[in-house]
Specification:
single chain; ANL_N_sf; 31 strands; 18 helices; AMP-bd_C_sf; AMP-bd_C; alpha/beta
Amino acid sequence: MASRYHEVYDGWKRDPEKFWAEAAEAIDWYSPWDKVFDAAAGVYGRWFTGATCNTCYNALDRHVAGGRADQIALIHDSAITGTVKKFTYAELKREVVALTSVLKNRGVGKGDRVIIYMPMVAEAAIAMLACARISAVHSVVFGGFASHELATRIDDAKPKLIISASCGLEPGRVVAYKPLLDKAIEMSRHKPDACLILQRDQLRCDLKDHFDIDYADAVARERAAGANVDCVPVLATDPLYIIYTSGTTGQPKGIVRDNGGHMVALKWTMDNEFGVKPGEVFWAASDVGWVVGHSYIVYGPLLHGCTSILFEGKPIGTPDAGTYWRVISEHAVVALFTAPTAFRAIKGQDPKGEFVPKYDLSKFRTLFLAGERADPETIKWAEQKLNVPVIDHWWQTETGSPMTINPAGLGLLPVKYGSPGVPMPGYDIRVLDDAGDEVPRGTLGNVVVKLPLPAGCLPTLWNADARFRQAYLDEFPGFYKTADAGMIDEDGYLYVMARTDDIINVAGHRLSTGAMEEVLAAHPDVAECAVVGIADAMKGQIPLGFVVLNAGVAREGGAIEKEVVALVRERIGPVAAFKTVVTIKRLPKTRSGKILRGTMQKIADKEAWTMPATIDDPAILEEITAALKARGIGV
């Protein structure tokens, strides 16, 4: 069919408020808004001011009342344990209500924060919805994060309660969560009132008296008592959740998501961007700890009345490179959303795609890739093996849903390899030079979005309006800074080329090299350090560390490098994929003392580079090249 994209996008541009008011009709409201957009509210304006609503009501209750009570809402498919558990909308609501009652009895109420530190189990989604039901603000922390990272989030969010589990499961190993959680609470200045712990059979844990509560026991008691907790109306502008993203200083940034605009935006994307209908099966193969898990495992599909899959496993090794096709076939998935890394892994294990024909993929219509740059070779491989459209798209934790995509629901546009598509309604994307002037089409520059940001985007950072302005709005007045570099072609397609700051993208996980440098610098033998992101065929990018040792250190460099790697794994977690440290005599710097990380990265990646005009001592770059070559890097 001919695409309706240009007509819809132009309609939004002509009258943004009319566009969002019409989109908001798909959501049930307790009371209407005073203004669709109030430019005088908040940092840059707020959406649907004065309206009241509840996200859990829209995700569950209205579907139960409206004829979907017996439709499957959530499928927990654990490739690691070999189990599948399904919940209808009525059953999911019953579980959520029982947990909500537990929270309420523990004194959790409107505006209180609850940290959810969980593996990929159905209870993670249930916990999010239970918080939303009584308008507590949830903050999901990825279960792979180390105690230090969890502690910083405890101190920032100040949760009344933490919901966790005894363990998480990885291929071939069990990760004990309880010791990590206990250590994080010990490290944090803020102390929660209690922890609710889901005991998993793979590794049970001891519970502390008068502090830890057995999740299953507590929920079963409420269920048996016939507990009923109604949804609490909240303002559309009240926070639904906080999700932390890496900050360039190592201090995490608490992205705030509101209730009203978030629901309107996500509901609109499910049909128009992802081309999925209510009742169909949608699968986002992500983690609930990341924004994709929030938007497209839990909230988006349930708001839309879909069946959503929450998958515990990996694209390979659980048990093989056919696991994704098994899930698609078994559950009649129509659309899969995953990171390009997953497909690089599958392609690496099964280059000829021999697993694909073993499964019935007749219901499968579209593959969506995001989280990092999707290289054309991977896209072409997936197109060829799956024989469906492969749609790259681009967005951020801050936006909550795609900024650019090739919109399946509006009718696909021609695919351009290397481009994550065209801007979606709400996003007036421009490319500016460092002085803030717009550059010609096809020219690389800073990718920005003209304010105001659309419904569903972050209104601010948690308790940090000034930091929000400084991080996103000050550099290019009137625009939101994405901190990505890219260009727009003559047809309006965006090409995102690189990060403009020190956030690197490891297998779809945005991680701060600055935070890693803080860990390296904490080693007693390290005088100076730098971390850069270098290209990796599997993960997109991986960190590479450089250390300069303190004068007089007589220990063997290799031992120190191993200790530094272990330190990063302990403080940030295995998710950082931090494996290589190179000891050098000195770091290349400008005369003003700035470390030339970009040049170091180019040498490691064998990219062309020119001698920086401001370099203090050009000989240092020869030393670095030699040190990297000795380790087989950049040769």
